[in-house]
Amino acid sequence: MSTRIEISASETGTVRVFAADLNKDQIDGFDVAAALGADTLDPEQIEFFDMADLQGLGLTGFLEEGHGIPAEQLHDMKPQLEALKGVVLIVPSRALGGEKQVLTPSAPLRLIGTFYEDRPPVSFEKLPSEAAQGNVNTDTKPGPSNAAMSGRVAMIALLVLAALVAVMIWIAG
Is 23:88 a contact under the CB 8 Å cutoff? Predict the structure, then answer.
């Protein structure tokens, strides 16, 4: 049975980790989009690397520090994530272009886990400065711009010149 991963157009903050049965030399030139079965994939947003490059940090540390995945989410998967060897592919939601699509990863890719970035709720607190207090005055209308005033002056000058030319033609005629 093949894996089907349904991606909604509004998906954000999701990070998928795949093991890749490849060696380090095969990373360059590997068609990740085809192996994932992705219609849209931004190669600038994925991370495709050898686990040996994460010396000291480990994959769980990389996901926690680099992608904002909470440690509680990684806790149960930590032994499996740290046991991975070889090449790993990390696909965040932003790499999928905000398009609805179905991923059907095939060999050499194997889905290891799906994680969700920690996004604290947005809160609006009162601004600490007294200068920030008060009402925005919406009754004031800005005066005309310099360009508008210049246009009006030029129009009056043209009307005066037109009147002078008309008078000169009338006198000459």
Answer: no
